[in-house]
Design brief:
The protein contains 2 helices and no strands. It has 56 residues and is an all-alpha fold. The chain has a domain of 39 residues. The longest helix is centred in the middle third of the chain and has 38 residues.
């Protein structure tokens, strides 16, 4: 048995296929990108509210 397999068995960690790891990492990147976009939109809207209140 390979030492890596023995290590996983000893630590009781689940073995996950590399393809699933790649898929999940891509999903994380996508969600981080969306979060960044939403953060920028929120900042823009906050500034718009400040400017609108200043004009009144």
């Amino acid at each position: 048995m390979e030492s890596g397999a023995m290590t996983v068995a000893r630590t009781n960690e689940e073995v996950v296929p590399l393809s699933k790891v790649k898929l999940l990492k891509n999903k994380i990147r996508q969600l981080e990108r969306i979060l960044g976009q939403k953060t920028v939109q929120t900042e823009i809207l906050k500034e718009a509210v400040i400017l609108a209140r200043a004009k009144n």
